[in-house]
Each structure stands twice: as C-alpha cells, then as structure tokens.
Amino acid sequence: xxxxxxxxxxxxxxxxxxxxxxxxxxxxxxxxxxxxxxxxxxxxxxxxxxxxxxxxxxxxxxxxxxxxxxxxxxxxxxxxxxxxxxxxxxxxxxxxxxxx
Length: 100
Fold this sequence. Notes:
There is one protein chain. The chain has helices at residues 7-31, 37-56, 62-73, 81-99. By secondary structure, the protein is mainly α. The radius of gyration is 14 Å and the shape is elongated.
C-alpha cells in the first residue's frame, strides 16, 4: 500500500527536480558540448522522474503543470488549480535558484 506524500514533500520534490534539470541545462550551455548535451539532460530527467515521480508526479516544468490542470478542468485526470499554482511557483523558484 502506497503512503500519500504530504504537501511539503511534494513541493520539495518539485523544487529539487526543477533545480537539477535547469542546472544541468545551464552546465551544458556553459560547456558547449553539442554531442552529450541532450544525453546528459535526458539522463538527469530520467533519474529524477524515477526518484521523485512517486512523491509529486515529477512535473518539473510549469508548462507540464498547466497542461495537467487543463486536463483536469476538461474532465480528465490531472492536477487541481491550487496544486497547479503551488507547483508552478515552486518550479519557477527552483529554476531561478539553479540559474544563479
């Protein structure tokens, strides 16, 4: 039986995942390696989706959170509007923190 994660754990998972993704993208831009850039971004994204997906759903991108909220509004599975808003705020903060 799976245990439901609390809101702080979900928000921390979104922050850490977004931070890692943006940090990896930034490192690839600085390094300028066109060969392994996509592979390293894909690997980091895969690792964090497996590690944190069970906690928060591993959106790591405000556009994904918005799409899931629109899906819910249209009657499908997805995120409610409050969850979407909090995820998007935390994801933007995580991205800004990684970019600094």
